[in-house]
Amino acid sequence: MNPTRGFAVLVADDSDDNRHLAKATLERHGYQVLLAAGGEEAIAIFEAEEPDCVLLDVRMPDLDGFAVCERIRALPHGRETPVIFLTALRDVDTFDRARRAGGTDFLTKPVHAAELIIRVQSAVKLRRMSVELREQYEVLKHHSDVLQRVQLQKERLMAFVVHDLKNPVSSMDLHAQVLLRDVALPPRLRDSATQIRSEARHLNRMIMNLLDLSKGDEGLLSPRTETVDLRLLAREVELELSVMAESRDVRLECIVEVASVRADADLLRRTLANLVENALRHAPSGSLVRLTAVSRADATEFRVLDAGAGVPPEMREKIFDAFIQIEGSSQDGASSRTGRGLGLAFCKIAVEAHGGRLWVEDAAPGAAFCVTLPHPR
Fold it and tell me: How many whole angstroms separate alpha carbon 116 and alpha carbon 21?
């Protein structure tokens, strides 16, 4: 027996396609579906039919979803009826307005059929709960609302970081390039402009790492694979970090035995740059940092080796967690493994998005960060 049989759901949306898609989805699961193309029609149907649940679009031409919800809540039957808002506006302000209007739940378009059914089933079951269980649910829902609002604020912060910080960083790099084109620029100022370029690139990489970490948390980091010239890519990484290597009196060496690989060129370049930068920060003065690429039976293997403090065995998994720091004494002038905690975390999600693997080994002395990217089948 279908437990949803006999429950009525009102779907209010000014889009014919959205209404009929929701109708088909709900009817497959045994719900009776009532359709309204506007806000006033939705209120009239609600008063006449007293449905068990309402799916309510935010934007409708005659009366928006917030006003419809407020009027439903003013009706005797409407005080306890679940109202689920459907909207393409994924932002904190819309979420807050939906809650103030009396919304029970909040779904962003496009809505997946499975998620829609789960939310409606939960809402209908809630309506049948005892008062005691409902109070417990309200506590849980409050925590859920807080978490969802934090997630929306996080997305807003990511947008700020990418759009509002990336542009001035790019401008810094551009102005440094203009200075470097001046053949009459004194050597001291040329060195400063070169350092500005290096730091601007580093800051831009940190910004992109932060964005990609957010995408990775949501399962949205999707590599755009192409054939990548590995020797050219390694050369770009070497040039990008040459100033840092020189300033730390560390020699940087790239040995690439593989002509090309199928990967997302930007993600791979930033992964290798982060690993090399990490090695340079922990390499002793006068030592060597080496980047290698070789072909194995079923994968291309990259290694970034330094002669620094190394990574203790018990920390070799945790080091790829965001914001991790490893305390320890320095060896031969190298710093202990502490840092910002973004670069290695980004490397892990970028490599795993390619179906690859990232780990760290003892380089005796130092650390060897290893990456494998599987050969295409």
Answer: 11
CATH 3.40.50.720 fits 8-128, yes or no: no
Nearest CA among 168, 198, 199, 194 for reference residue 182: 194
Alpha-helical (H) ranges within 221-360 are 230-240, 242-247, 265-282, 343-353
Identical fold for domains 8-128 and 226-374, yes or no, is no
pLDDT given for residue 163 in this prediction: 66
Contacts of residue 345, defined as CB under 8 A and 6 or more positions apart, other chains included, come to 209, 213, 320, 321, 322, 323, 324
Compute the distance between CA of residue 273 and CA of residue 236 in angstroms, rounded to an integer. 9
Determine the Cα–Cα distance for residues 103 and 85; give it in Å rounded to an integer: 7
Domain ranges (residues) in the chain: 8-128, 163-217, 226-374
**Residue 38: other Cβ atoms inside 10 A:** 17
Q: In whole angstroms, how large is the CA radius of gyration of the chain?
A: 28
Q: Look up residue 268 and give its amino acid.
A: L
What CATH class has 226-374?
alpha beta
Q: What is the mean pLDDT of each run of 10 residues along the chain (377 residues)?
A: 67 92 92 94 94 91 90 89 86 85 85 89 76 71 82 70 74 86 88 86 78 67 91 94 91 95 94 94 94 95 93 86 56 47 84 94 92 92
